Amino acid sequence: MLKFIGRALNTKNDIADNIYIFDAPEQVWDDEYLDTLHKGLMRHFDLRVRFSEIEYTLRIIEDNLKIFREISQHRESNLLEWIIIILIMVEVLNLLISKLL
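The structure assignment produced for this chain is given below.
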């Protein structure tokens, strides 16, 4: 499960690294025609809508990963609690046996 969480987070980071489409290149800043073309292409390909959908999907994935991580930590914590209970019982039994003998 931890490998899955790690892979999912790496994928999320890769997607976030590649979302640079809103940054206009330097050539666009200097040329009004290129700026108009850039804005037109962004509208034509619905980049803002697609980006918001990707962002929403990534938020859902992140929430699911948090839940998986909490489940994993709960299992480990539960196991540690049982180990502590068993150790305490062994210690009490050891004390009783030493007092009786």
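Interim note for the steering committee: Residues 1 and 68 are 8 Å apart (CA to CA). The radius of gyration is 28 Å.
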